[in-house]
Amino acid sequence: MANETQVPLNRIERILVAMVASSAGLSIAAIIAVIIGGFAKADTNSGIWLTVKVLPFVGLILALILIVVFLIVSVVRRRRLARDGR
Fold first, then answer.
1. At 77, is the secondary structure helix, strand, or coil?
2. What angle do CA 20, 39, 28 make, to 5 degrees?
3. CA–CA separation, 64 vs 35, rounded Å?
4. Model's pTM, two decimal places?
5. DSSP of 6-45
6. Do 66 and 19 meet the contact criterion of CB atoms below 8 Å apart?
7. Helix or strand or coil: residue 4?
8. Pick the residue with more confidence: 44 or 15?
């Protein structure tokens, strides 16, 4: 049976995970703020609300791109480790 040891994350992977979490978290918080603003009958078509409305579109796409980058970096690193015989 193969030895199943966990490989720790390197610095780049930790940074990517933090970026994904912050981007997705901020986008979800913006979605919740827009929903609460709609229920509170706030004027969501002016001021800072325009930025809050657009933030989820940009943030969630960025999070998806960063997840793909994380997967690529992780696969490349694991292949190098396997090739080196670790």
1. helix
2. 5
3. 23
4. 0.80
5. PPPP-HHHHHHHHHHHHHHHHHHHHHHHHHHHHHTT--TT
6. yes
7. coil
8. 15
